[in-house]
Amino acid sequence: MAAKFRVLHLGDDIKYNHDVYQRFASEFDIIQPTAAERERGEFMRALKDGRWGNFHAIFRPFWNTGGEMGRWDAELIPLLPASVRIMASAGAGYDWADVDVFAQHGIVYCNGAAASSESVADMALFLILAVFRNLAWSHQAAHSLSPQRFLDAHQNSPLTALNPRGRTLGIIGLGQIGYTIAKKAHAAFGMKIAYNDLFRKSPELERAVDAQFVADLDDLLGQADCVIVATPFAGKTLVDAERLRRFKRGARFINIARGSLVDEEALLQALDNGQILAAGLDVHASEPYVHPRLATHSRVMMMSHNAGGTVDTHVGFERLAMENIEGFLLRGKALTPVNLHLTKPPKSVL
Hints:
- By secondary structure, the chain is of the alpha/beta class.
- It folds into two domains: about 5-115 and about 310-340, NAD(P)-binding Rossmann-like Domain (Rossmann fold); about 115-300, Rossmann fold (3-Layer(aba) Sandwich).
- The protein contains 13 helices and twelve strands.
- It has helices spanning about 20-25, 40-50, 100-105, 115-135, 135-145, 145-155, 175-190, 205-210, 215-225, 240-245, 265-270, 290-295, 310-330; strands at about 5-10, 30, 55-60, 85-90, 110, 170, 190-195, 210-215, 225-230, 250-255, 275-280, 300.
- Strands 8-7-6-9-10-11-12 form a seven-stranded parallel β-sheet, with helices on both faces. The protein has a five-stranded parallel β-sheet with strand order 2-1-3-4-5.
- Strand 4 (about 85-90), helix 3 and strand 5 (about 110) form a beta-alpha-beta unit.
- Helix 4 (about 115-135) crosses helix 7 (about 175-190), helix 4 (about 115-135) packs antiparallel against helix 13 and helix 5 packs antiparallel against helix 6 (about 145-155).
- The radius of gyration is 22 Å and the shape is elongated.
- This is D-mandelate dehydrogenase, putative.
- GO terms for molecular function: glyoxylate reductase (NADPH) activity; hydroxypyruvate reductase [NAD(P)H] activity; NAD binding.
- Belongs to the D-isomer specific 2-hydroxyacid dehydrogenase family.
- Keywords: Oxidoreductase.
């Protein structure tokens, strides 16, 4: 009987896709470290000692568990057995994982953006409407129980409100999530779509949402009525004070990617001086802490990093992580690889 690939399952038991997991568990030998073994010190000791032997895939089906060992970096990744070929994880962002270091060790990293794109795009639509209509002002005033604040918002917030229809939405990063946002914003609000990305989309995909590719990011910022950040964190701040000065004056700004992409002090100053009229933030630089002045600003709508937070997303994360491993180990092709273009040629694994 042929030997099976072995999968290290990090985190809780699966909750949703029991039929898929039944198939998955029949195809692979599953190893599931305890919660204590997942703490960074113990996890690293276990890898050094070869406690789980050779395994070929790492499976993290949930965002809330399985990350107890902290950042996957140049300290941790080299401790993995040479047999490891793929890590498939829940979550769209991967700022907690050095995917280039995975690639250096011949390990393909797969994220769950395809499973969360619908939920994140829906939240983006809410934030687009919030910043164009300045709903934070109205929302905060209504919750204050102050008649004066209510009347102020009732009378004056409409003087800063615009309809999104016909306005230009500038999307930084037109990946799975960014493209879904473009489709929804174009269809629901009749917005014009402009985007900046490392790679231009095909003419067919551009035509489907009437999107214009803008090769220079500063040019995009200067022409967009609302800018939305939908790109992964790549190790440095993307929207800083200098970049904010490139925005069209009075533009709206939304971040549904990662808080570390934005200089929050610079954003606050841009809001105060009118360079940015309103902001919608699902993510924050120092989560779970939020910037106190941004939190109370009348033109900032804030969420608690919930853009992808639906049951549908969790079901999709779980399933996609399994299907990525099946696709790669059994058929030679992962569904949502992030770093495949950086990864060394595959090693012999069995």
